[in-house]
Amino acid sequence: DAGVIQSPRHEVTEMGQEVTLRCKPISGHNSLFWYRQTMMRGLELLIYFNNNVPIDDSGMPEDRFSAKMPNASFSTLKIQPSEPRDSAVYFCASSLQRSGVGYTFGSGTRLTVV
Amino acid sequence: KNEVEQSPQNLTAQEGEFITINCSYSVGISALHWLQQHPGGGIVSLFMLSSGKKKHGRLIATINIQEKHSSLHITASHPRDSAVYICAVVYNTDKLIFGTGTRLQVFP
Question: How far apart (Å, rounded) are the C-alpha atoms in residues B1 and A54?
Fold first, then answer.
């Protein structure tokens, strides 16, 4: 398995633009997580899905952020409109069931909003 | 007060030294992860523990659920062990709460 695949690896965009981050979890994993990492706040959970259903989105900072998981092999995190304070590394991770077994992170997307 | 606290925040060592990183938490958990993040940013899950001890190569992780404490040990440290080590507790089904990390530098 290629692991958790995120795209793009780097994204530079202008303030106000829409940004879409993509994630393909490991096949067979049915929990998927979106995290954000900044120097100031470290790693924070934004949202997680179990069996494609959002379970906890309390970490989503505001309405500008939305996440979808239309099927078991794909998820998106969208920011619209983007702001400079959204600049961070966004990680996707997946695991098996709710056991945390096989917890695997993607390589992350480094987002810079100018 | 953070729910997950790590110590030390920064650690330097000479190659070959035995290293211990500590993690204390204040919430009830179902499991705990030790994560490693190298310069360049990739995050790898080293261990997931819910009790006792696990060993993988030169790495050993222990957890004491009653005392809400875990330790990560590195024996015979090597410069390639230089990374940030993050403790993360599994809280409320799958939700992870992260410590602030321990930055380890091992010099030859």
Answer: 29
The stretches in chain A having pLDDT less than 70 are 1, 97-102
Residue among B48, B90, B101 whose CB faces A42 most closely:
B101
Q: Model confidence over B70-80: pLDDT tens digits?
A: 999 999 999 99
Q: Look up residue A18 and give its DSSP letter.
A: -
Beta bridge partners of A31: A50, A95
A&B contacts, CB < 8 Å? 51
Asked if residue B84 has pLDDT above 70, the reply is: yes
Whether A98 and B93 lie within 8 Å, measured CB to CB: yes
Q: In chain B, whose CA is at the least distance from the CA of A110?
A: B41
* B45 touching A (Cβ < 8 Å): yes
Query: Which pair of tokens denotes residue B86?
Result: 């993050």
Query: CA A94 from chain center: how many Å?
Result: 10
Contact yes or no for B22/B86 (Cβ under 8 A): no
Residue B27: pLDDT band (50, 70, 90) is: confident
CB B47 within 8 A of CB B31: no
Place of tokens 């690896």: A9
In this predicted structure, the answer to whether residue B93 has a pLDDT above a threshold of 70 is no
Per-residue burial over A38-77, b = 16 or more CB atoms within 10 Å of its CB, e = otherwise? eeeebbbbbbbbbeeeebbeebbeeeebebebeebeebeb
CA distance A74 to B86: 27
